[in-house]
């Protein structure tokens, strides 16, 4: 087992973050990871509860609606919440390959040319949340490997 500290660069990454609260959460998340040294950290944007992120007064929302009308994405960036997940490298590689295929099919079959990461990852997590039986099967298969 290598004696390298796999969190050695974490403090530098945390220092780049503007918020001290976010830095504390990132550090505690990293410290709670089990001993799987092949884990890759993946950050994604997910849909958040609008009441939790709506800090703007309603008078400003009229201006935001005109710019949102120009945005063809499924939801605005402001409706997202940044999270961190731990995924094996081969899993994230397969997901990125799937993203490329989905993007290509959206372009060719549906003339959608501006797929965003937030839309893709939100759809991935909504699909996973809707198919809990499939998740259970995947988890059991992974433990048998």
From TrEMBL:
Source superkingdom: Archaea
Record's compositionally biased regions (Acidic residues): 13-34, 46-71
Record's keyword terms, sorted: Plasmid
Region (Disordered): 1-82
Name of the protein described by the UniProt record: Uncharacterized protein
Species whose genome carries this gene: Natronorubrum aibiense
Pfam families listed in its UniProt record: DUF7970
